[in-house]
Amino acid sequence: MVKVNGKTERKPARGVKPGDIVEGELEGERRSEAIPEPSIELDIVYEDESVLVVCKPAGMVTHPSAGHARGTLVNAVLGHCDLPELVVPTGRVSNRMNEDGDFDDDDGPSTSESDSDAESASDSDDDAGSIRPGIVHRLDRGTSGVMVVAKDASAHNSLCNQFASRTVRRRYVAILSGVPKTSKGRIEAPVGRDPKDRLRMAVTPGSGRYAASNYEVIATLASGNASLVEWRLETGRTHQIRVHAKHIGHPILGDEVYGGGGGAAVDALARRGVFDLKAAKALLSRIDRPMLHARTLGFTHPRTGEAMDFSRDPPEDFDAFASALAER
Predict the structure, then answer these.
(1) Does the structure show a pLDDT above 80 at 65?
(2) Which residues, 6 or more positions from 65, have their beta carbon under 8 angstroms from its beta carbon?
(3) In this structure, are residues 155 and 122 in contact, taking their beta carbons and an 8 Å threshold?
(4) What is the CATH number of the domain that holds 170?
(5) Does 151 map to a domain?
(6) For residue 224, is it within any domain?
(7) pLDDT tens digits for 211-242?
(8) How many angstroms from the chain centroid is the CA of residue 305?
(9) How far apart are CA 184 and CA 180, in angstroms?
(10) What are the residues whose beta carbons fall under 8 Å from the beta carbon of 235, sequence distance 6 or more?
């Protein structure tokens, strides 16, 4: 409610002039609650007093956000660690989040590679002294794979710094439409909000943030109509692999947002008669997410300084889809 000179004003376009007294009430700080959910099972890869390494299933959102208050990784971790509910101001992270509750793992430079004052995800901490699970990086809702969660403030700060300085080792596997022209390559293309659709990301020269990905073709599938590709990230931009895969003309199959689904994907699988259109459509209907899996994660242990590397093979839906393609 806004008052001008003591009277309630309901017209947003009403002008004011020098001497007018404008009064208003600001809403209190919006807060989101992360409720412990011990009933959610975690696939634990490794755990000690400082860190928890898990394999996130596809379909699980990392962090509570608008529309995703329950069933997230944070809810599960709170339940696993027997911690009370976590209440954090939503405004501390929402401006860098996408619709899945994800934001950049390393908050580095825009279009140049060097920048000494890069922020890290630790800036979203509300109370650095509290003991609670610290989310230091994200995986998209549809992406499965290995993630690390900090169990105390010291570990959280250390891991955030490692992501910000780009020393964390990450490898993913994806099933792409078609086969890249070169068996190995490096993609350096800035990633930012798609100016035509703010809910998506895109390669945006001049306005995007510096992003670099390395890829290597592991196997050719479906007689060249698809490929199994390993990705190594140098940066961690939102949807980076998905955007870079689309950028080189080989979107991730199952990725409806970035060109890997629908009629275009059906046509790509059916090229040269490898599949008929009906069979290609039926095969794609068996997957309900982008075929992307975070297979390995390596970092320096926050307390011991030991180099640690963890891996998980892709889940059943990924393997079954790859096997079906390999049969052609």
Answers:
(1) no
(2) 32, 90, 94, 97, 100, 101
(3) no
(4) 3.30.2350.10
(5) yes
(6) yes
(7) 999 999 999 999 999 999 999 999 999 999 99
(8) 26
(9) 8
(10) 104, 106, 108, 166, 209, 210, 211, 212, 213
* Domain assignment of residue 125, given as a range: 31-326
pLDDT in tens, 79-123: 999 877 654 444 333 334 343 334 466 654 334 333 322 222 332
Whether residue 202 is contained in a domain is answered as yes
Nearest residue to 97 via CA among 119, 130, 64? 64
First to last CA, the chain: 65
Q: Residue 87 to residues 29, 34, 36, 90, 155: CA-CA distances in angstroms?
A: 12, 6, 11, 9, 20
Catalytic residues: 140
Total tally of structural domains belonging to the chain: 1
- Evaluate whether residue 1 is within a structural domain: no
pLDDT, tens digit (0-9, with 9 covering 90-100), for 6-18: 788 777 777 788 8
Dist. CA 103–CA 85, nearest whole Å:
22
Residue with structure tokens 């080792």? Answer: 169
Concatenating the DSSP letter of every residue in 196-208 gives TEEEEEEE-TTTS
